[in-house]
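Hello Y.,

Per our agreement to keep a running log of every chain we model this quarter, I'm adding this entry. I've kept the format consistent with earlier entries: sequence first, then predicted structure.
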Amino acid sequence: MRNTVLLAALAVVLAGCGKQGAQLGQGGSVVSGSAGPAGAQSAARELQKCEAPVATLALVENPNGYTMAGGYALPSSPLPLVRLLAQQSGCFRVVDRAAGLKAVIKEQELKDAGVLRQQGSTVAKGKGYEAQYSLTPSLTFSEQDAGRQLGGIMASIPVLNKLVGAAEHVKLKEAQVALLLTDNETTEQVAAATGSVQVTDLGMGGMMLGKLGGAAGAGWSNSNEGKVIAAAFLDAHNHLVTQLRMLQAKELPTPVATKPGKS
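Predicted structure for the entry above:
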C-alpha cells in the first residue's frame, strides 16, 4: 500500500508536466487502430486473432441495456468498440445491422421512388449477406471511492501529508463484460466469454495505475471510464477467440473487391 501511495503521488506531480499541443495517435484506450481490406492496423499487441474468418457476424444490442453508473458522458452503446475488435481479430466478416443497414434501406427506397438512376445502379434487392452468427455484449461499470482511505494513510507520512487533498480524487474503476455468441441457423449459444479489469484512477490529469496501454479507441478514449470498459472488452474478446478457433468454418460469400496487390 505504501508503494501505491508513492506511485500515486508521483503520478499527480507528473500529470502537470505533459507537453503542449496535439499529438495524433497518442492517449486513448487499448482498443486502437483500424480494420479493413488492409488488415488490422495499429491494433493492440494483446489482441488475439484467427488465421481466417469462420463466418459472417452481426453485433446485436443487449436488450437489457448497459449498466454505467454516473454521468460519464460515455457513448450509449459499446457495439462500435466490439465491432472493431471483431473485425481486427479476423475471426469473422462483420455485417452491419445498425446505422449502415438503415442507410442501405434508404438507398433502396430512393431508387424505388425514382430518385436514383435505374440503369447501372449498384443498389439492388437481394444482394445483402446474411449474418451466420450474432454477438451480444453485456456491460457493468462501477466506481468505488478510495480517496478517504488513501488520504488517511498519506496523512501519517511526513513527506506525503501535504498531498492528502489530492488523494480525495482517487477512485477504483472496474468494468465487467460478457460476449455471447449465437448460431443464427440453430439458435444455439455456441460460445460465451467474460472479461474484467480494475484500475486506480488518480483523478488529477486523467492518469491511471493499472494494466491499460495507449492508443485511440472507437469513441471511448475521452475518459478513464471508457478506457476501463475498452480494456474489459479486449479481455473478453481474447477469451472468446480461444473458442472461435474450434468452430468449423461456414461457407462465406464472395468478398468485396480490392485493388491488386503490389509486386
